[in-house]
């Protein structure tokens, strides 16, 4: 049996993940750090993270080519512990591939690739699983002892938390982009309305109706018509609206 992981080592793992959650701007960099951190828990182990995108399982990060190859074997055969964990949200341990009876086609090919044991841990986002962290041992059967398994479950929980945060940041960035685009459009249209009101000596409602009619008659977006009017009158492109700040 392998020696216990020192408490300081495990604490360092959590500290690294926590710092990544706060500091890493690139999701790719974050995932790469996570798989290498998880792989370091058990000697001669590879790690991959699988997520589901548009119904297809995809490896988004791997500690080395061995992990990616084992993942791809499961995808090509549509079976294996990684996919089972991804779809059911269950932890799947394969302690010894020489005696494993589940997924025989996958097991045979994985054994030829040198795999001796594996552990697949579900990653949950909201109500259900969205991915799995897969640990592959090429050293010996029973590499994932109960102690190691508990430690890796904690690492997987940290990984899921980091991915939830990354997902929220991506969502926030998307929302912020839409808001900035809306503010820019609103600012351009307001500038055009001001020009029309001055030229026609009319209200903002009448000015907007005139701008809208021009948009419909030329089959162009309102913002494009507004930009053309501003450039025609001022000789300059419209000023961008104020950036949205969270």
TrEMBL record:
Annotated ranges, domain ANTAR: 167-230
Listed InterPro entries: ANTAR, CheY-like_superfamily, GAF, GAF-like_dom_sf, GAF_ANTAR, WH-like_DNA-bd_sf
Assigned keywords, A-Z: Kinase, Transcription, Transcription regulation, Transferase
Protein's UniProt name: GAF and ANTAR domain-containing protein
Organism from which the protein derives: Microlunatus spumicola
Taxonomic lineage: Bacteria, Bacillati, Actinomycetota, Actinomycetes, Propionibacteriales
